[in-house]
Structure formats: C-alpha cells, structure tokens
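Lab notebook, page 48
Experiment: co-folding of the full assembly
Goal: obtain a model of how the components sit together before planning crosslinking
Operator: M.T.
Materials (sequences as entered):
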Amino acid sequence: MSETAESDQLLVPARMVNEYVYCPRLAYLEWVQGEWSDNLDTIEGRWVHRRVDVPTPRQVPDGSDTPEPAHELTARSVLLSSEVDGLIARVDLLEMSGRLATPVEYKKGAPPDNAARAYDPERVQLAVQAMILRANGYHVERGVLYFAEVKERVDVPIDDALVSLATDAIRGVQAMASSGRCPAPLVDSPKCTRCSLNGICLLDETNLLAGRGDATTVRRLVAPRPVARPLYVQEQGSVVKKVGDTLVVTAPDADPVKVLSKDISAVVLHGNIQVTTQAIRALMEDETPVMFHSFGGWFVGQAGAGIGHRNVSVRMAQHRALGTPLQGRIAAALVAGKVQNQRTLLRRNLPVADHAVTGRLAQLARQSRTVADRDTLLGMEGYAARTYFAAFPALFRERGAWAGAQFRANGRNRRPPLDPVNAVLSFLYSHLVRECTSAALQAGFDPYVGILHEPHHGRASLALDLMEEFRPLVADSVCITLFNQGELEPSAFHARARGVMLTPKGRRVVLAGFERRLEQFIMHPVFGYQVSYRRLFDLQARMLRAVLLAETAAYRPFTTR
Amino acid sequence: MRHRWLIAYDVSEAKRLRRMHRLLDGYGDGVQYSVFICDLTDVELQLLREQVLQVMHQAEDRVMFVDLGPMSGRAPHAVSFVGREGISLRDKPGAVII
Ligand code: SF4
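Observation: model returned without errors.
Model output:
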C-alpha cells in the first residue's frame, strides 16, 4: 500500500470530501484557507478519536499479495492513498480478512434517525476510503460507522449509487480548489448552527450583504463578546513569568498576580517590562500574541501568534485591489463612516446643538461616499477633521472643563502631545491601532497593506483603515467621559521635556476606561444584533475581507445614529 | 457564557496528586485543600474533563464537578468563606491591568 510521498499536496483527503458534502464553503475555508476553530462538537469528536489516532506499529500488507487463505487483522489509524484517483485517507480502524477490507470510522453521539442510520457526509467519506482500498487491490463490500458512546456499529454498504455520489463530490472538491473561489454560504441552513466555523464564515451577514436568499433576520452565531481579554502590564519594572501552567505578573512592591492562559487574548506591554523566555514560549504555544507599546504609549509591534495566517488569498486580494476602483470605493466608505460618526458624537454630546457644524459634517459624510479621486477624498477628510476638532473642546464640561480649555488653546496635536486631552487621545488611538492590528491579522490580512492609508514603511496602514470609523466612537468618547466624570484630573499627568504624559496611575485609568468601552454592547445597524465593540472590530475586518474577496459588493462601515 | 464550577478531587497517589493540582491550577483557583473554583465555557469544561480523565486513575481516584451556575447570575456570590483571610474570588470578568 503506497505510503505517502511528496505528491501529498495534490491528493484530496477523504475528510475534505466529507466536509464538502456537508457544506462546500466549510471545506474551502478549512482546507484551502487554513481556517480552524473549535467548538464542543469538534472537541468531542477528537476525544472519540483519541484511541484510534495512535497508529498500529504493524505493517499493513498490500492487498494484492496477501496470501490466501485469509488471515484476520485489524489496524488503527492507517494512512492510505491512491495516486491514480488522487485520494488520501486516514482510516480510523481497518478490519481485514484476507482481501476483504472494512474501513471503520469513529463517530461521536448516536446514529441519526434516518433510513440509512447515517448522514451522507460520513457515508461518502467511507466510500472514498473504500475507493482507495479497492485501488490498492482490496475487496470492499461495506464500511462501518462506529458510534463510540453508545457502542453501536452501523453498516454502510458501498454500492454503485454511493460510489457515484462520492465520485461527484470528489470532482466538486477538485473544481472548487482549482477555481480559487470560496463557495457562497448556505442559505437558511440549520447546519450552520452546529458548524465550528460559523463565526469565521459569517454566513447570514455575507448572504444579507450579497442579497442572497431572503435573509431579513441575521442569526447571531458569533459569540457577542470574546471570553478572553488582554492582560495589560504597564507598571515599570514588572516581571511576567510562567509558573506551572499559568502566568504570574509581579509588579514592584505588589503581590504577584496569577493569570490563566485561557483568560488572556493578548499580553500588552508598556515600556520596561520583563517577560521570561518560558513565558514567551508558553504564549506562543497558545497562539497568544505579545504586543509592545513604548513607554510613552506608541504601539511598536507584536510577537507570536497571527503572523503566519495560512490564508494567502486575502493578502493577494489586498494587493490586487491597489490602484483599482474598488480601492477607491472602500476608501470612500471608510472616510464617510468616520465623518458620520464624528457628527454623531458631536450631536450627542454638544451642550448646545450646533447645526452649522453637524450639518457640515453630515454633508461631508454624504459627499465623501461617492468621491472617486483620492486627493479630493483626503481633502474632505482633513476638512471634516478640522471642523470636528474645532468643536471638540466644547464637549468637555464640568469636571473636564479645565482639559477642554487647554485643548482649545492647542488644537489637536501629537508627538509629543502638548496637553492632557491630546495625550489621552494619542494614547487611546495607539491602543485602538493595536486592537485593529489584531483583528486584521485574525482575518488573514497583511496589516501593512492599507487601502485608504497607502502602504508606508513600518506603518500598520490597514489597521489604521479599520480604526477610522471607531476613532470617534471608541477613543474620543472614552476621552470625553474620563475627563467629564473627573476620573482624569491634572494629577494624572506630568509635564515632560516638551509635551505632556500620563502618569502610571493615569494610564491605568485610561486603559480601564478603554476596556469598559470595548466590553459594551451595541446594536449592529445592519445585522440587527448586539455585539461588543471588541467583537465589532473582528466583524468589520471580516466584512472588509468579504468585499476584497468579491463575496459582497460594498464595504459598509459601522455607524451609529 | 461561562459557568462557575466547584471541582474537588480525591487522588490517592502523590505524583497524580501533584499533576491534578497543576492541571486545575491552570483552569482556576485553589480555595481549599483539593478544591478549586474554575470559571469555564462549555468548551473549556470539556477540555478540562478530558485532561482530568488522563491524569486520574479511574478506579482509584474520584473528581467531583459542581455547577454553580452562569457567571451572569448568582454564581459569583455562591461561594463565601468564614475564618482565615486571603482568598478573594473574581466576581466579574474583565481585562487585568497591572
Ligand atoms: S457556517 Fe454554514 S455556510 Fe458557513 S461554513 Fe459552516 S455550514 Fe457552511
């Protein structure tokens, strides 16, 4: 029986044919784009396979030279292939009696309540295994599905009808892989609720924006907010260590704090923090990125997870879009979204309505939506920003009035920020860039290849694109709240050589405010369900990806009213 | 959504005991001798159960799982202590800022 050679890549795995029959898009996402995500089903499935996943050391004899009379033999986890058919399979259990071979596939749960006592994807998977066995000289009459929990065997006869079903599916897989196009999501299918990739596939969302089916209600299948959150370490001189299977952070003059790896999505470091090599290794194994900010707050970069996303097609699509009308349309949508949200923030928070300003912003948002020329677009964006920041100081009232007054004198400035409001804005923007960089990497983007922000050495241009619509809603609104509620007072800042900087205590207040905001639920205006802001970054990144991959026609920025 | 679980074990051999302690320490906080409080999603619970089965001796040891309910409900207040000070359980999830 041929052990697999270099030609592996070209062979279609039986498991992929199974998934193709379940849903072509699932097969594509998993096998062509390299997406993977666990849910309860996949974990339980692996658990059922644990005993059969250890290969039997014994050599399986080739069917063609098995001597008669038969000798009985079973083998676990056998890798089989047929170069002629272009197929490969790992058989959980192979029962042999002379030339008669019976592949056994382990399944979780109980047999379904239908005539065949089996679902088509599994029947087809067994048929593919049978085809490979036959090509290797074996005689196969049936396969078996073994439901481990209830210890029940279901016979699956490998008849002509099933083989032709399998042959069609194999052709489908081959055509799909060579087309390089991700199949559309299933419409209104109950299968999606159980699919482990539903949070990545965004089936109803994609169908809605592509105008497929009559999807008026979008099922919320993504978790409304991620359970894991960042660990921020900003107390200078802290040490992050691995102790047992956990991380322990020790700040100077403080008790060590234990952090569970399952609870953290990223480790965010400010300035001079030590992380042991063992800790970095453990984080890498968990695919938890370590993200570095300079002492002043600037986002420097990240190490670890996310760098090697296997989904090349997204990166290729990013490059292909450069210089096309599509790039212009997305850029216009990004600017329009930001300006619209700037207007919303002013309309909601200005003590006295200023229709001249909000009206101008509304008009700029409307006009920018259709601007094709890049320079014109950037001009409008700049004009909107000046209009917005001229009105901005009025948002600081009562306990925040002092900060607004200083901002009024300086206007928006950075590097270094000259007053507290500017210091907080810069700090928040750099954390927003970091969140958007994560979201971009998760969605398979190259964060350096921007659409509105053209590629520029050492700048996460695409993350800057993604963050535009969120600047007013996340960063600016947190800034206003923290000052107005008196959480940030002059003591939270100190003057540096030229500019103004947050003290460690001030940084902590701002990070806590930022985190509170990211945890907040908001109604998605297009999809009609509640998600947290942090989840929204992922969602928007994936919707941008859908546009670049031509799954949907136009990018819809997130806007609130 | 996460539930809060009280997990207690009887493990009869020293090496397995150390391994069990280390395993649970990665999922939650030890609150008493051989008792842990862990906040787990259904996926995390399943992963933990599988690892517990691998560490324990199924005929000689026993591990108890008590579901104290969803973290959004009364679970955060389901456990309280009297006597020696020193343990405070997390009551709401959120980013850790140090
Ligand atoms: S969520 Fe539905 S459409 Fe998307 S991959 Fe899964 S089964 Fe297919």
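Interpretation: The two ends of chain A are 65 Å apart (CA to CA).
Next step: discuss with group before ordering constructs.
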